[in-house]
């Protein structure tokens, strides 16, 4: 069952294909070797692992894949409901319950995108610095702060900005879809 709006028909393939492309090809190229080349002074395995885990509590690829699944769930519920009720494509916006359910799924998607956007800012910020200052107090070392080199920091910053931009575009598409539905619903009520 296709989404009942033109924007929705664009949004789903856009969201899925662009996000999968970013995560699978570009994400792996940028973040795939990050832990291997993350090095601290002193360059010891235990220090590097500890500081890398402090630097990246969750890898961006895992976070974005989780975000992709969570954001697609509201739309999947609508489509599952529509399939179970054998709703025809042309009936999607003709009955107010179906329309309200679809709009609810869009609002839920917007909320989930906003939460993911906020979490992304908290976890990754807007810029990846070349040097990360690691607090090794938990390892009970003599020197509590050590400097760590972050590999390919500029590429990671560009990738973060691209993912932020992608999130903003998807939220704008969801809002535009709500306006399209309200316009179509108003038009169908007059007919």
From TrEMBL:
InterPro entries the record matches: Connexin, Connexin_CCC, Connexin_N, Connexin_N_sf
TM stretches of this protein: 12-31, 62-84, 96-119, 158-179
Keyword check for Lyase: no
Pfam families: Connexin
Annotated GO CC locations: connexin complex
GO BP term, example: cell-cell signaling
Compartment(s) where it occurs, according to its Swiss-Prot or TrEMBL record: Cell membrane
Entry keyword Nucleotide-binding: no
Domain Connexin cysteine-rich: 112-181
Keywords: Cell membrane, Membrane, Transmembrane, Transmembrane helix
Entries under SMART domains matching the protein: Connexin_CCC
Entry's Gene Ontology molecular function annotations: gap junction channel activity
Primary subcellular site in the record, as a coarse category: membrane
Membrane topology note: Multi-pass membrane protein
UniProt-recorded name of the protein: CXE1 protein
Organism: Pandion haliaetus
Designated gene of the protein: Gje1
């Amino acid at each position: 069952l296709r989404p009942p709006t033109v924007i929705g028909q664009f949004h789903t393939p856009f969201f899925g294909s662009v996000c999968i492309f970013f995560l699978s090809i570009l994400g792996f190229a940028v973040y795939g070797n990050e832990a291997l080349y993350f090095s601290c002074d002193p360059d010891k395995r235990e220090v590097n692992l500890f500081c890398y885990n402090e630097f990246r509590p969750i890898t961006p690829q895992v976070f974005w894949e989780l975000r992709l699944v969570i954001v697609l769930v509201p739309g999947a519920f609508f489509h599952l409901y529509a399939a179970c009720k054998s709703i025809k494509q042309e009936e999607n916006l003709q009955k107010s319950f179906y329309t309200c359910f679809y709009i609810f799924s869009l609002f839920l998607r917007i909320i989930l995108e906003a939460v993911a956007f906020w979490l992304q800012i908290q976890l990754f910020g807007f810029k990846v610095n070349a040097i990360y200052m690691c607090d090794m107090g938990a390892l009970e070392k003599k020197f509590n702060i050590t400097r760590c080199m972050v590999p390919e920091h500029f590429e990671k910053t560009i990738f973060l900005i691209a993912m932020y931009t992608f999130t903003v575009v998807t939220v704008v598409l969801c809002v535009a879809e709500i306006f399209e539905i309200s316009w179509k619903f108003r038009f169908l009520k007059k007919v």
